[in-house]
Amino acid sequence: MHEAGVKTWALTDHDTTDGWIEARHEAGKNGLRFVPGVEITCEPSLEPNAAHMAQQGRERASSSWHLLALFPDHDPNERDLRMEVFKAWLAPKQDGRGPRMRAMCERLTELGMPVDVDAVMKRATGSVGRPHLAEEMVHLGYVASKSEAFETWIGDGLPGFVAHKKPSIPEAVQAVHDAGGLTSLAHPLYYGVPTDVLLDTLVEQHVDGVEAVHRSHDDAYRHALMEGAKQRGLGVTVGSDFHGLNYQPRPGHMPVPKNRLLKPLQAE
């Protein structure tokens, strides 16, 4: 991140805060401003629109919406009662990943691809997720890449996929706001909802911003999101959505006007 010229960096692992202290330490060594965060897996607020998905060239929508929670004023090394309450609210969502992973391994075994759930668990230092399962599938030779694992077997709605219980967007927004945080909807392209309808829904549900810049978004979609967000008083966030080096993320290479970002993130 430092070599790419990034000055402000947030760690937003799925449904866990386990990496905050290590991330703050490493960011400090490299002169980066660190923002604690988490990506909360939520129930969809809207059904996907088939016509819009066809226009975007997508065959299916994600079965969950992902809400980024950012806490720019929180120091992970200091005790914060509001953050303890938030972590207690988040914990059951994370705990649900273990049983879900076991169920997915069982399903893959039924499909002729035996996977040891303990081997998958060992790949995770915190909350276990599908990227760890994909790594094990590559290791076992079932697929050539993590992308193939998601696109063929364990992506949303595919034969090896198992869903888990998720909060609603309004429920998650309330939990984050109560802890002094900000919210932004991650990678909205994945949800198959027309831009205006999606942004109006974010306003109605008190989401603070939208991740306009993401590796899945082309120039036209980024522009539409940023202009629509500006009209509605929503902020903008930027994410690499880092899931491993094979995804070739290039942080720091997409210019965004600072005054479009969520206000607490505008300062260098």
Provide structural commentary.
The protein has 268 residues and is α/β, with parallel strands linked by helices. The chain folds into two domains: 8-92 and 165-265, TIM Barrel (Alpha-Beta Barrel), CATH 3.20.20; 97-154, DNA polymerase, domain 1 (Orthogonal Bundle), CATH 1.10.150. The chain contains ten helices and six strands; from the N terminus they run E-H-E-H-E-H-H-H-H-H-H-E-H-E-H-E. The longest helix is centred in the first third of the chain and has 15 residues, at 81-95. The relative contact order is 0.15. The mean pLDDT is 91.
Précis, in short:
The protein is of the alpha/beta class. It has 10 helices and 6 strands. Helix content is 39%, strand content 12%.
Features:
268 residues; alpha/beta; TIM Barrel; DNA polymerase, domain 1; six-stranded mixed β-sheet; 10 helices; 12% strand; globular
Set out the fold topology.
Layout (H helix, E strand, L loop, with lengths): L7 E4 L8 H10 L3 E10 L7 H7 L8 E6 L10 H15 L1 H14 L6 H6 L7 H10 L6 H9 L14 H10 L3 E4 L9 H10 L4 E5 L5 H14 L2 E4 L30
Parallel strand pairs: 1-2, 4-5, 5-6
Antiparallel strand pairs: 2-3, 3-4
Helix pairs in contact: 6-7, 9-10
